[in-house]
Amino acid sequence: MTAVESHPPAEATVDRQEAERERARRRHRIGRYVLPFIVFLAALAGWEALVRINEIPPYILPGPLLVIGTLITDWGVLSAALLTTLKITFGALAIAVAGGVGLAVLFTQSKWIEASLFPFAVVLQVTPIIAIAPLIFIYVDSTTAGLLICAWIVAFFPILSNPTLGLTSADHNLRDLFKLYGASRWQILRYLRLPSAMPYFLGGLKIAGGLSLIGAIVAEFTAGTGGTGSGLAFRILEAGYRLNVPRMFAALILISFTGILIFAFFSLLSHLLLRKWHESALSRDV
Hints:
Layout: H1 3-6, H2 10-54, H3 64-73, H4 75-109, H5 111-126, H6 129-139, H7 143-168, H8 172-180, H9 185-223, H10 232-241, H11 245-274
Helix pairs in contact: 3-11, 4-5, 4-7, 4-9, 4-10, 5-7, 6-7, 6-9, 7-9, 9-10, 9-11, 10-11
C-alpha cells in the first residue's frame, strides 16, 4: 500500500472537520436555548407539585397554574398598571441617557468639570433610593415628577460612568495621530472617542434599563400611589392588603418578564450595532 493510499484525501479531512464544527455549533445552540427552557419548565412543575402534595393554601403559596390564570383574568388591571410603570421607567431612562452622555462628553473635555461633578454622581449611586425617596416626595409636589426623579437616580450612574470610561479609553496612539493631522477636538470626539465609547455606552444601557425599572417600582412603593394612575407596585401592595397572593405573584412575574424583555431589547440593539466591527459581537466558531 502506497503512502498516498494510506491517508484520506485532503477534501475528506476538510469535510469531516467542517461537519464536526457544525455539530459543535448545533450542540451550542441547544445548550444555550433549549436547556434553560427545560430547566425552567422543570422548576415550574416542581413548584406545582410542591403546592399540590402539601396542600398549601393559595393565600400562602399559589401554584404556577393559578398564578398564570390570575394573570389572564386580571390582565385588564395589571396591564394598565404595567403601562404606568413603563412610562416612568422609560421616561427616567431617557433623562438618564441625555444627562449621562452629555456629562460624560463634558468630563472628557475638561478634567476640572469631571473632578467637580463626578463625586456628586458617586454620592447618588451609593445612597439607597429607599432612604431618600420619602424626602423627594416631600419636596416635589408632582407624584409623577417624584417617581421620575427616583427612577432616574437609580439609572443615572451606569449611563454616566460607562461612556466616561469609553471616551477616555480611546487609543492614545490614534489620538496622537489625529492631533498630528490637525484634527479639532470636535473631530477627535466624533470620529474617535464616540465610536470607542459605543460598546461601553451600550453595556451601561443594558444595566440602566433594568435599574430604571427597579427604581420605578421602589418609587411607587414609597409613594403609595393609588387610583387610575397606579403602577404595578401599588397593585402588589393592594393585593397584599387583601391577601390576594395570586395577584401579587402575577404582578411580580409581570415585572420580572418586563425586565427580561428590556434587557433582551438592549442586548439585541447592542448586537446589531456592534456585530460588524467590535470584537465582543463578532461571530466565532465554537
